Amino acid sequence: MAMAARTLALAFPLPLCAVSSPRRATPLALPRRGAARPLASLAQCPARGHSPSPRRAAGRALAPCAATRGSGGGGGGGEFASDDGGGARALLRATLWGAEAAYILWLFLLPYAPGDPVWGISQATISDLIGLSLNFFLILPLLNSGTPRHSNLKFTALRPLILLVSLLGSVAGVHLLESPVLHPVAEGLFNFVIAWTLLFAPLLFTDSRRDRFKGSLDLLWGFQMFLTNTFLIPYMAIRLNDPDKDKSPPQTSKLGSVMVRGAPIVGLTGGLVCILSIAWALFGRADASFGGIAERWQYVQSYVFSERLAYAFLWDILLYSIFQPWLIADNIQNVKASATEFVNSVRFLPVIGLVAYLFCLEDRDD
């Protein structure tokens, strides 16, 4: 009988039963084909207590747990990255607006910084401001300086420049206004910051995020020439706003076109004035009893911590040193491909990095 039952089982593969009790029989589960079940299930992951045994897990695919985190195509991960970047921009934007408030309060309104606040400014400070403005870019001091032998700038490398400017002034008869005699350190510091501000113009007009700023970029840069970071800090915050997709790209103004097309000239002018300002602070007006380098260094220390204007210029230099590499990095695509690596490596050098950016700008039609 046993032999006959075994023969029938091989000929007719019917489910066999395992007798668990005299009254109840349970069919043995036969293995199914792999094609009868999906390779991966979109169901939720099994709980720890119900995880399949290693033997069964080897025979079937586990459910992908990450499939329930978002829609297909991995959009969830990109959205998370975008939200994270937006949060960082919001924090940075808030920091910049806080810096703007601190800048105005500390340097203009509060009486705790060195020098006089704007509401208590002295007549001497006003006179110095007028004198520094008249000596803008050291044009009047150079025109009125005379021949190199009598020049008040004893710096051999710059004597040809002094001679050229003096000759131009003599030929044109330019001596309409006498140059105010101020300390050369004060004149050098003032013109250095103003020349650096001039260099920022083509950078702002080629900024890829300038469309976030809804106002006139011409006016912003014009006010920046007089009040420096009072207007640059808000621009740095506004350019972090989300773009207006419905708005057409901004049209470059006439001033912007001139600044961008003449970027090398702007870079040369600003760079030379910065060099001249440093030389003037060290050696200018040597015949006016302002002392040597040691005495001028002592004057710098007393000047910065007694005059609000000089103290503000130190903050301007610090902020410009931060904003310059930041803006250049965001607009490195505007640089010629052959000079990208060079500009990217020197962008942290004050003034020098910005001059390099202006000289290496890609030619633009607008």
Automatic annotation (TrEMBL):
The organism sits in which domain of life? Eukaryota
Signal peptide (from-to): 1-18
What keywords sit in the KW lines? Membrane, Signal, Transmembrane, Transmembrane helix
- The UniProt transmembrane annotation reads 118-143, 155-177, 189-207, 219-238, 258-283, 303-322, 342-361
Report the PANTHER family cross-referenced here: TRANSMEMBRANE PROTEIN (PTHR36367)
Protein name (database record): Uncharacterized protein
Species: Oryza nivara (Indian wild rice)
